[in-house]
Write a sequence for this structure.
């Protein structure tokens, strides 16, 4: 019954929570895609002093669990006044998603024949033009893969959203759903309607981009 969904949306303030989740997730994904694409291009195409250090930092980001740096991150956010703001979620989500995104995009770029870049250079392409006109179109399947995985992770993240955001006006859907479930634990119709509303957008994103995700994974694996 759609009336139950409408009631869950209204009484649970899910519209506000959904808007916050959409803003945080979109901002984090944009940062991840832009920075990862640029970093992957630089690491794949150029050798410079400190290349190994940069690669090691991204690798460390893959290996380190959230608990290893949470206390330091929490203290830093308190000092600069980011707690209880959307940036307290956007920046960590982007930082957590960058290492994997960089390695995925770099692996995709490493598989592209160098002759293609050499031909573009001969035709007069500078680095900026080559990135926008050659690299980005080739990276579209990989970017779709990175964006989808990053969006799912940011949309569903709970721990940081619970610890960094206390204002009800800024809560995202996972923490908002926790408050909803506390109030309507015995009303299973409303509770499961709210659960459906929370999961439906990210399922729709995956369904919309699943072909690009599969193409990005299989193309990168078979090159």
């Amino acid at each position: 019954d759609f009336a139950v969904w409408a009631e869950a949306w209204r009484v649970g303030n899910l519209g506000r929570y959904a808007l916050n989740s959409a803003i945080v997730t979109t901002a984090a994904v944009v940062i991840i895609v832009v920075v990862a694409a640029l970093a992957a291009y630089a690491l794949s195409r150029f050798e410079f002093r400190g290349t190994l250090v940069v690669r090691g930092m991204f690798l460390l980001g893959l290996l380190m669990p959230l608990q290893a740096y949470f206390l330091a991150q929490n203290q830093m956010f308190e000092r600069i006044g980011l707690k209880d703001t959307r940036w307290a979620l956007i920046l960590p989500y982007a930082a957590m998603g960058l290492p994997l995104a960089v390695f995925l995009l770099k692996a995709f770029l490493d598989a592209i024949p160098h002759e293609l870049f050499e031909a573009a250079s001969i035709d007069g392409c500078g680095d900026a033009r080559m990135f926008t006109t050659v690299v980005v179109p080739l990276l579209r399947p990989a970017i779709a893969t990175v964006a989808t995985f990053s969006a799912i992770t940011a949309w569903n993240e709970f721990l940081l959203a619970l610890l960094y955001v206390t204002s009800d006006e800024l809560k995202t859907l996972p923490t908002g759903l926790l408050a909803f479930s506390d109030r309507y634990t015995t009303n299973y119709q409303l509770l499961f309607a709210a659960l459906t509303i929370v999961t439906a957008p990210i399922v729709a994103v995956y369904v919309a981009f699943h072909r690009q995700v599969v193409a990005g994974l299989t193309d990168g694996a078979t090159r």
Summary: The chain has a mean pLDDT of 81. Residues 188-222 form the longest helix (35 residues). The chain is about 85% helix and 0% strand.
